[in-house]
Write a structure and sequence with these properties.
This protein is α/β, with parallel strands linked by helices. 41% of the residues lie in helices and 17% in strands. It contains 3 helices and 4 strands, in the order E-H-E-H-E-H-E. The chain has a 4-stranded parallel sheet with strand order 1-2-4-3, with helices on one face. Strand 1, helix 1 and strand 2 form a beta-alpha-beta unit. The model has no long low-confidence stretch (mean pLDDT 80).
Length: 106
């Protein structure tokens, strides 16, 4: 609803839910021209994950994002994050920032 009001919005999801929203993500970009900024937590980074199925999900996540032809980055450099945000405005496509487990402490 925020995006429809003309304001920027962010969607935060874990990477294992990316498969569930692929159809909607595609429709937002191609049918409705409603690009969004997604922040996706990377469950399955082999540096921090020992569960096999999460590692597989993590590896497949990048293939899916590339197949959707979306820009993605890690939040390690401000320039890349700015590019992700500007890409939404200029290209009318969603962008994704991928967050590693190591970037946040509970």
């Amino acid at each position: 609803g925020i995006k429809l009001s003309g304001k920027n919005s962010v969607v935060f999801i874990p990477n294992n839910k990316l498969w569930h929203i692929t159809e909607y993500l595609n429709a937002f970009n191609t049918v409705y021209c409603l690009p969004l900024l997604f922040v996706i937590s990377w469950r399955g980074d082999i540096k921090y994950e020992s569960t096999y199925e999460h590692v597989i999900d993590g590896q497949m996540m990048f293939n899916l994002i590339d197949d959707l032809n979306l820009y993605w980055t890690f939040p390690t450099e401000k320039i890349k994050i700015d590019y992700a945000i500007n890409s939404i405005k200029e290209n009318q496509k969603s962008s994704i920032i991928i967050i590693r487990k190591s970037e946040f402490e509970c």
